[in-house]
Amino acid sequence: MSLEHSEAARICKSLKANGIIPDFRAPNIIRLAPVALYTSYVEYGRLFKF
Hints:
Keywords: Pyridoxal phosphate. InterPro entries: Kynureninase, PyrdxlP-dep_Trfase_small. The protein has one domain (2-48). It is built from 2 helices and 3 strands, in the order βαββα. The chain has helices spanning 8-17, 41-48, and strands at 2-4, 23-25, 29-31. A 3-stranded antiparallel beta sheet has the order 1-3-2, with helices on one face. The radius of gyration is 11 Å and the shape is globular. The model has no long low-confidence stretch (mean pLDDT 86).
């Protein structure tokens, strides 16, 4: 999933600080790939606020 946001770099840093590894693409793209084999239910909850 790709998201565009003017604060993408800051958001990526915050996600990393909370254990979620995003992929930042300049100038303002955040890419996330929730993969069942690599992502735990806890990580899904952090990402999607369950």
